[in-house]
Amino acid sequence: MLNRHELASLLRSSGKTFSDSFRDLDQTKFGFKPAPGRWSIAENVEHVIVSESGSVRLMRGKLLREPTPPEDLAAAADGWARVEARLSPGSGAVDAPDFVRPTGRWQTPAEMLAAFESSRAGLIEFIETTEHDLTRRAALHPRLGMLDGWQWAYFIALHGLRHAAQIEAVKRDPGYPR
User: Fold this and answer.
1) Strands 138-141 and 145-148, how do they pair?
2) Position 68 in a domain
3) Measured CA distances, 140 to 8, 24, 137, 152 (Å)
4) How far apart are CA 34 and CA 53, in angstroms?
5) Number of domains present in the structure of the chain
6) What is the pLDDT tens value at each position of the chain, 178 positions in all?
7) Residue 177 lies in a domain
8) Burial code of 53-66, b = ≥16 C-beta within 10 A, e = fewer?
9) Domain range for 120
10) What is the crossing angle of helices 149-172 and 4-22, to 10°?
11) Residue 159: which of 132, 141, 134, 137 has the closest Cα?
12) What predicted TM-score, i.e. pTM, was given to this entire model?
């Protein structure tokens, strides 16, 4: 379990790793698809932005508005381990829910970088300044089950790292534009 300062630090470092993975790419590299059914760098980035911004809205909204029933808090008790198991390297592919699948919401790497950095900065600010005990607030994650607020932040950090690794794999593909 991480505390507020450790989570903020992890969010900063994982955010930098993620944004550095696509910063300054040209449109050809950004849009390259390594194979049918595999995501391009642009699609990975869009997915992370949409997933993260939705998670941040949930954390700043629902988690603060609605008290969490004791049974939901109990269900979140092993959330740290579930996040790590699902997002660790080599944990296998996960089919993203339709609402966080890439659809071309942004067109350029610069637009996506700005959207990601704005979302991540807002989350870090929230984590550092909230007076709410987010370990006492939980909400259902569509793939990971019940998570408390700190576990949601941990998910966001590891999710970005997972997709940064996927972006690096796209760059290693023999067909990737050089």
Assistant:
1) antiparallel
2) yes
3) 22, 36, 11, 10
4) 26
5) 1
6) 899 999 999 999 999 999 999 999 999 999 999 999 999 999 999 999 999 999 999 999 999 998 899 999 999 999 999 999 999 877 777 788 889 999 999 989 999 999 999 999 999 999 999 999 999 999 999 999 999 999 999 999 999 999 999 999 999 999 999 9
7) no
8) bebbebbbeebeee
9) 4-172
10) 20
11) 141
12) 0.95
161 alpha-carbon distance from chain centroid: 8
Residue 178 lies in a domain: no
Rounded Cα–Cα distance for residues 76 and 154 (Å):
13
Nearest to 47 by CA among 116, 134, 114, 138: 116
CATH number of the CATH domain containing 137: 1.20.120.450
Q: Which two tokens stand for residue 46?
A: 């869009």
Separation CA 130–CA 125 (nearest Å):
8
Category of 135 on φ-ψ map: left (φ > 0), alpha (ψ -120 to 50) or beta: alpha
Q: Is residue 31 part of a domain?
A: yes
Asked if 56 contacts 122 with a C-beta cutoff of 8 angstroms, the reply is yes
* Ramachandran class of 90: left when φ > 0, alpha when ψ lies in -120 to 50, beta otherwise: left
